[in-house]
Amino acid sequence: MFAARILVWLLPTCTLALRTSTFSGTMVDFTDPKVQGHLDALVRMAQACVIKVRASPKDVRAYFTNSPPITRSGQCFAACMLEQSDIINHGKINRDLLIHLAGLVNGKNSRVVRKLHSISRLCLDSIDGMSDRCQLASTYNDCLNENMTEFAFPLDIAEEAVRKMPFHLIQPNLPQELRQSSF
To answer: Can you say whether residue 86 is alpha, beta or left, with left for phi > 0 and alpha for psi between -120 and 50 degrees?
Structure first.
């Protein structure tokens, strides 16, 4: 999803198998150590969010493959990811931070960042009046995903990220005190 993709470019290590991919004229070098570091940080954030919101493999797969979430926990997973990156803070979208972070990797005046300026504003309109944090984050993220295909993850990288999630920690038979100690 867009937040996943944008976070790849934002965050400064779970190693993912990386390769170079081209999307809509934008070259993303997944072998670049800088990009790998961002991916590794993204996976660590996702691992924490899986535990926090009890996200399922389907929820995480939807997020990493830019598909809208189909469950409440999938929506809350998107909220957790955006909140951890401070793109959402106290229920407010920080568009300036989103654009700034995208510019760090893509260049401040790149075509991608120029497009993000208008798309992120459009997506703010899609959440006008929403107060539920999970629905707000999910709707905003879905809008960005639909309009910013430049940041799409290759499927193999998305699947590898899903495989690195600690789903075993949220099994129904896991004692409650162990689930809460991971937050």
So the answer is: left
